[in-house]
Amino acid sequence: MSTDHVAPEARTPLVELDGVSKYYGNIRALEDVSLVVNAGEISCVLGDNGAGKSTLIKIIAGLHRHDAGSFSIEGEEAKLANPREALDRGIATVYQNLAVVPLMPVWRNFFLGSEPTKGKGPFKRLDVDLMRRTTREELLRMGIDLRDVDQPVGTLSGGERQCVAIARAVYFGAKVLVLDEPTAALGVKQSGVVLKYVAAARDAGLGVVLITHNPHHAYLVGDRFVLLKRGAMFGSHTRDEISLDELTRQMAGGNELDDLRHELERAPVPTHLGGHGAGGVEK
Ligand SMILES: Nc1ncnc2c1ncn2[C@@H]1O[C@H](COP(=O)(O)OP(=O)(O)OP(=O)(O)O)[C@@H](O)[C@H]1O
Ligand SMILES: [Mg+2]
């Protein structure tokens, strides 16, 4: 393969993890995991329940410190003391359980913690009009046409809430957007909508970390794929190195799935559960 003209690997990643490990007491949550996040790219982290996906992003988000390996932001070793520092370095994280105040209007939630004010001294107050207008404009820019930015966040669908969180991160100037299973609780259509905004964030030049256990969702938008199993990395591929079929096969556990199929086939259905020999419905 020729790499003579452009060497994309030569640019400094926004975020890079190299051989990172994390232990909770005796529990190995992550071991020797590496991940590259570039501007304008989506890096997907795939894995089953308990694989270490949330642990990985908690390190990037400044919530946990890693025990081994290196974590750098724009080429500099990162020593984040807390999530606020991560945010100051341009890393915005949307957690698995979205932190929203359900009764707050959408615009209020959009500006939560960064409210603009107007007036001075005793006349200083929240600039509500600006917040309303900006929220509407920013959501529209992402293609989200909310009926009413005054409606409580709790009345939005799960997909809309994810989209608002993404639009918020883009507006406040995030360089890296970290999303923990944004499509996990969503149906097919809403997942599609959320993935569109994930792609929009990428097109706006952000580096995105997309956590999912769905290889189809990952492959729709992903540039890089890191596969985790019980804390260890069992695959790391760029898009041109792996097909959707292969990604799906690896995520399904490949050979493990064949073993499971055999086990399930072998087990005969007991007669009292409706297997052969159950003579109709008992009354
Ligand atoms: N604070 C903690 N203390 C102790 N063990 C933890 C803690 N957080 C996570 N673990 C353990 O670390 C492992 C990885 O957990 P993690 O939440 O990162 O998995 P995950 O891939 O996000 O799973 P899921 O798909 O269910 O969200 C699990 O075995 C989990 O029980
Ligand atoms: Mg998780």
Automatic annotation (TrEMBL):
Out of the domains of life, which is the source? Bacteria
Q: Which keywords fit this entry according to its UniProt record?
A: ATP-binding, Nucleotide-binding
What InterPro entries does the database record attribute to this sequence? Answer: AAA+_ATPase, ABC_carbohydrate_import_ATPase, ABC_transporter-like_ATP-bd, ABC_transporter-like_CS, P-loop_NTPase
Q: Does the keyword ATP-binding apply?
A: yes
MF terms in GO = ATP binding
**Entry's PANTHER family?**
CARBOHYDRATE TRANSPORT ATP-BINDING PROTEIN MG119-RELATED, SUGAR ABC TRANSPORTER ATP-BINDING PROTEIN
Q: Which named protein is this?
A: ATP-binding cassette domain-containing protein
Q: Name the species this protein comes from.
A: Streptomyces kunmingensis
